[in-house]
Amino acid sequence: MEISLFSKCIFEFIGTLVLIMLGDGVVASNGLNKSKGQGGGWVVITMAWGFAVMCGVFIAGPYSGAHLNPAVTLGLAAAGTFPWNAVLPYIAAQMAGGFAGALIVYVFYKDHFDATDDPDAKLGVFCTMPAIQNKARNLFSEFVGTWLLVFIILAFSNKENTPELGMGSLGSFPVTMLIMAIGMSLGGTTGYAINPARDLAPRFAHWILPVKGKRDSGWGYAWVPVIGPLAGGLFAAAMYLCVYSCVLE
Predict the structure, then answer these.
(1) Which of 9, 106, 237, 249 is an S-S bond match for 79, by CB 3.0 to 4.6 Å?
(2) Residue 190: in which H helix or E strand, if any?
(3) SS3 of residue 66 by DSSP
(4) Residue 216: strand, helix, or coil
(5) What is the pLDDT of residue 160?
(6) Does the model's pTM come out above 0.85?
(7) 148-206 pLDDT, tens per residue?
(8) Alpha-carbon distances of 248 from 81, 111, 234, 243, 245, rounded to whole Å
(9) What pLDDT, on a 0 to 100 scale, did the predictor assign at position 202?
(10) Mean pLDDT of the chain
């Protein structure tokens, strides 16, 4: 069965929506007042983000490849494994899905947003901000985290690793472990956005929504978790081509 580009974008939208709904949802559960999950900690957050990716991949994997991330889409295109003419439609679908997922989380946790006085905690549900503001190092953190993500995804998809399996279905489990590992090991500096659709789209939702007692949406930092991941994805593609095409020839 041939799947149209439009249908693939629908699955990217739904997969990214579920990813953000569960990912932002665990941050809301951990950080907002009067939530039964408040104070669950970093391990809970990183595990839930990994499972959130797994759910998105199960939904979209068999039909769109489940990129769910503009940096992954760009990296795969640069590596020659994804058509360039589908890059912008995929990214548009991912951004729309990220925005919609954030809206659902806001409505779901509305009473807890109202019960929370900390404006930083409210912003943190939607998007990332660095633990220590140092934009050059923050940019490096996002670059490295996304480079590792995209490079290993490309390695997963190599026929020597998955001779008869695609990145959908069973391929979601190693990606889940990868997201958890990046979060636990490299996420402490910036909150490991490593995905513009995870950060920029929900940031717009925070900006637009009438969140009670909210702060500014951190626009002075917002470019870091966009440029860093996109650059990291491109670098991962270049490194993959160099290692797997040049070194192994």
Answers:
(1) 237
(2) none
(3) coil
(4) coil
(5) 63
(6) yes
(7) 999 999 988 776 665 544 444 556 788 899 999 999 999 999 999 999 999 999 999 99
(8) 18, 56, 20, 7, 6
(9) 98
(10) 93
Distance, CA of 218 to CA of 206 (rounded, Å): 10
The tokens of 156 are what?
Answer: 């997963």
Residue-by-residue DSSP string for 21-65: HHHHHHHHHHHSTT-TTTT--HHHHHHHHHHHHHHHHHHHHHHH-
Q: Which residues of 159-169 are buried (b: 16+ CB within 10 A; e: fewer)?
A: eeeeeeeebbe
Q: Judge whether 59 and 15 are in contact, CB under 8 Å.
A: yes
Residue 173 to residue 171: CA distance in whole angstroms:
6
| Distance, CA of 161 to CA of 163 (rounded, Å) | 6
Residue bearing tokens 């797997």:
244
Phi, then psi, of 24 in degrees rounded to 5: -65, -30
**CA separation, residue 87 to residues 17, 67, 170, 202, 236 (Å):** 18, 11, 24, 20, 17
3.30.360.10, 1.10.290.10, 1.20.1080.10, 3.40.50.300: CATH of 5-247: 1.20.1080.10
> Of 141 and 154, which is predicted with more confidence?
141
Per-residue model confidence (pLDDT) at position 1 = 73
